[in-house]
Every structure is written in C-alpha cells, then in structure tokens.
Design brief:
Helix content is about 10%, strand content about 40%.
Length: about 325
C-alpha cells in the first residue's frame, strides 16, 4: 500500500508535455444513423471500427464506410447487473440521477478489443468493465477491490460524471488500462491473474490535477481542467486522447508520464469545424502505423458549417512515426 500511495504523491504535480507538432487531417467522415450523436470510444476489432454510446446500455455500433458518409450497424447484447462500484453513496446517487435524466444507466464511455475478439466496455456509472466475447453472454470482469480504494486515495474518482472515461487492453489480454477523466485525471493499470485481475504492486500509474487554457485556435481563454477522454495501445506504447487541449500524447507504460504529444488543434479548430465547446468533443481514439483516428461526441451540437452528425477524423501519422523521439 505504501508503494502505490508514494507513487501517487510523487506524480501528483506532474506537468503535461507541450505538443510540439501539428497533425495533418487526412480525411473526415460524418456518421449517419446515431441518435443525438452520442458516441464515445473507438476500437478496431477484427475487420472494422466499433464504438459505443453513453446513452445505450444494450448495443455496440460497428462503423461502416460509405462514399459520402459512414453508417452504423448495431449489435445487441444483454448486460447482467454490475457489481458494486465501491463509491460513496452520494456519488452513486449522483451518477444514477444522470442516467435517469439523459438515458444510459451504465454510461458506457469506452471500448477496446483483444487479439481473441473480446470487446471490453468501460462503464462510468458502475466503475466496471463489461466483456463481450465473440460467442456467449456478456460478463463483468472481476476487478480487485483495491482498484477503487487506491484510485480515490490518489485523488481520482472524486466527482460524479468524471470517473472512468477510457480503456485499452493489450492483444494478449494480460494488461488493462483505464483512464480517470478529470479533476483529477489519472491512469490505472491492471494485470490478469488467470480469471481475475490484480493491481500487481499498485494500480495507480498517474494522478495529476491542474487547469490549462484551451488552444489559442479555439478562441476561448477560460482555463479548463486537464482531462483524458480515451486510451489506445499501439506497439507496446500507451496513448491518451486529451479532449480539452486537443492533443494525443504518448505515455510511459511504467509511470504514465507524457513522453511526446501531437496537437490536432490546427486541423479541427478552424471556423468551419469548430464546435465552440470549451472542453472539446473528441472522445474516441485508435492508432495504427499510418495514422490516428479520432471520433467526436458532439451530442446535438452543430459545428461552424452546420454539421450535426458525429464525425470520424483521420490524421496522418507524424514524420518518423508514433514512436519517434523529439
């Protein structure tokens, strides 16, 4: 216990690395067929992209490319009742109220896939991970009780609607990462022990707070809390999608510290593509050797050119690739 607590305290004052390179937009694809535009999380599973909506507790969406726009195909599932979250009563009730008002009692915020075709969905409301296998019923992973106690001990998971926002797994399904959204934001890691998952010396990789002004391209100046909105695992490296600062950062697997960041502010904050939200709307991330794919959760908000559909942005990989040093 002392080990993870000390690590959290040492990382508490970490400062994000400034983005030094602007990503180039290679394409954008509006997505038809999703009510209200509420998509969150992105993963390549098998032969296509999959996403979830924080308003739906019973379906996944497969993104289907089209000539002028992409569409979605639904896959239905039935989630059993989630295990207890371990949160205090007040936070549980606040999250439940959000679900009653807007829909989506489980509040799925991210999706990832392993090499065997299992899909993993992170529930912000229950602080749980639902696994949906290629064949058979969905089930909740057995997460260690220490996960929540360690996270809250490091200052994470303190505000309702600001709990777990991103998820990534390695292809062998031996390591699982979770992102705590904001105020404070953080990174958590779990290791598989046969059918269970453990903290293996400590679940908290990173805990940091602070505020930062939105990018100058946004035209906004009021500082906003630093956040994470999704995770991606690529070539033995972990990447974070940072919604408010409009950037993608490569982070150390051992400490969670930012090693290098790339901004997509120039490409997406022009007058035609700007949504005007102070915290940004990017909520899904997938990386491969050729580029990055970012999915936005715009709700019913229109951007500058009047477009209200969810959008999938495709950015070219930086020169030298994602693993290059500055």
């Amino acid at each position: 216990m002392r080990r993870w607590l000390l690590a959290g305290l040492l990382l508490a004052g970490a400062v994000p690395v400034a983005a030094t390179e602007q990503l180039q937009l290679a394409g954008e694809h509006p997505v038809d067929g999703v009510p209200r535009g509420n998509l969150s999380g992105l993963a390549w599973c098998g032969d296509g992209f999959w996403t979830v909506s924080d308003r739906d507790d019973d379906r996944l969406y497969r993104l289907v490319p089209g000539e002028h726009s992409w569409t979605v195909e639904e896959e239905r599932f039935s989630a059993p009742p989630p295990p207890p979250s371990g949160l205090p009563w007040g936070l549980r009730q606040g999250q439940r109220l959000i679900g009653w008002v807007r829909g989506g009692m489980l509040d799925f915020e991210g999706i990832t896939c392993d090499g065997s075709g299992n899909r993993y969905l992170v529930s912000e409301a229950s602080l749980g991970v639902l696994m949906i296998p290629p064949v058979g019923p969905a089930r909740w992973l057995k997460l260690p009780p220490a996960l929540i106690s360690q996270a809250r001990g490091a200052g994470l998971l303190q505000r309702h609607n600001a709990f777990l926002e991103g998820i990534a797994v390695d292809p062998a399904s031996q390591r699982l990462w979770l992102a705590a959204e904001r105020e404070r934001r953080g990174l958590l890691v779990l290791h598989r022990q046969q059918a269970d998952w453990s903290c293996n010396g400590g679940c908290v990789l990173l805990s940091e707070g602070g505020f930062e002004p939105p990018p100058a391209q946004s035209g906004l100046t009021r500082p906003q809390p630093l956040d994470f909105s999704d995770l991606a695992f690529h070539e033995e490296r972990l990447y974070t999608l940072e919604r408010m600062t409009h950037q993608i950062c490569r982070r150390s697997l051992s400490t969670g510290q930012a090693e290098r960041c790339w901004s997509f502010a120039d490409a997406t904050l022009g007058e035609d593509r700007r949504y005007g939200a102070p915290h940004g709307v990017a909520e899904g991330l997938w990386l491969d050797a050729k580029g990055a794919w970012v999915l936005i959760d715009n709700g019913e908000l229109a951007r500058g050119d009047g477009e209200r559909r969810p959008m999938l942005w495709h950015f070219a990989a930086p020169e030298g690739g994602w693993g290059a040093t500055p």
